[in-house]
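Throughout our pipeline, every protein is held as a single compact record rather than as scattered files. Such a record has a labelled line for the sequence and another for the backbone structure tokens. This encoding replaces a full spatial description with a residue-level series of whole-number codes. For reference, a complete record is included directly beneath this paragraph.
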Amino acid sequence: MEYAYVRYSDFLEDQLIVRISTDGGNTFPTTLFTGDENGSGNFATGFNNTNPFTPASADDWCGAGPACIALDLSAYDGMNDIVIRIENINGYGNWMYVDNISLSASCGATEPPVAAFSADPTIGCAPLLVEFTDESTGLVAFREWIFEGGSPEFSEEANPLVDYFDPGEYEVMLTVENNAGSDTHTETTFITVLGLPFADFSFTATGMTYQFTNLSQNEDDLEWSFGDGNTSTQENPSHTYSEPGTYTVTLDVFNECGTESYQETIVVEADLIAEFTSDVTTGCTSLVVNFEDVSIGLPIAWEWTFEGGNPATSSLANPVVTYNTPGSYDVTLVVDNGTSVQTITLEDYIVVNSEPTVYFTTTVTPGSGIIATDNNSSNADSYIWDFGDGSTSNELQPIHTYTAEGTYTVSLTAENECGEVTMTQEVMIVFPPEATFTASTTAGCAPLAVDFMASPQGAGYTYEWSFPGGMPTTSDDANPTVTYTTEGVYDVTLTVTNAGGSSTISQTSFVQVDGAIIALFDAIATPVA
């Protein structure tokens, strides 16, 4: 303990006393030090001074004169509740100063330390610099670090810096010790050092199509470049080259530590595969088809066969063919690239459709005006009927009723994508007649001649008359003449028939015939005078 002090005079001085308590400061029964000046310079660090004293230099402190105060506390080793009190007994002297109180001991620990540590960072890319921190508890007299894979591999520092240059997972061990013993703490896979990814791939080829397989390691992402301007980010892509040639395929792989690349040079050779296409494959007769060779492998010669086509064969790369007959037709292409010949046949590739075929019949129910249709058309998508009286229908086989007699033209138009075809047929509609007749006279004296007139009259009608009492008694004339010679009253019956049926009319007591007049007289002679 350092102190600085001077007396005011030989008669006015202070005293320094140091006491110790073992009960936490409740009592201070023991005095460890007493110091006062006796005039021989045994305690004061300077000469008497009637002015207030303030130490201004190192010479004003103990050590330059009297020795500083050293106290032996060994008698209190292991005790608790120790309190030291420093007292200044004021005798009207001068100022006293105390400074730099230090405690030193030459003693050992009572328990071994407990090893613990931390590091920052614990994961990263090589080269990785890691700062380790000793977080052990207890008195540590000696420590030893072991850094697997690190540089340095060993250290005795409290907080060493270690470099890791190679990717991997590494163990760290710290051993701490004191006089009471030692402790070791080990962390396995404590430090993870990441490295660049490893790039590699393999491939197989089928013709000009290549299947690539990624064999890389430790990558987070990747990108392929196939050397023809095309790229891919798929894991195992398939790529078809459009032309033969030499290409450099590059695989770039990425992770947080950087990028690595792997390249392979491949020679793509054309593998002849026969293929073709056309602008149309179906249509109507007179169908014009533009064929196009899309074969793989650079053919130099072509041999086409066109079933049903015109021309039927061709040696052009892209021929034009016309199909005039309905049907389904095969197409064959043979290609030659000088080293290989390949053939492809597509069955029923061309389908040629035609206009529909139209045909129908009708059945007329006599006397009703009703006709039934029977549609036997084929290859049609839709139908239009026209019955000639302003009526139409889209049904397949409609039934139609006419309201007036006459001859009508029935037409059926069948349609599909290739066109339309129309058929016509005449039907005659006849209704049963309504028979009537007239007579030139209906009464008279015998012999009475009567001219009869039937209605209706015209082509297609037949007549059947019945004249009871007349002569003739029957007739099939339209306008017969009948003579009645016998007095009486007579019926007349007429039946008129046509294609629609027949109608009969009977008139009772229609003709009345009177008898002949006979002149009778008597003569009486009167004499003349």
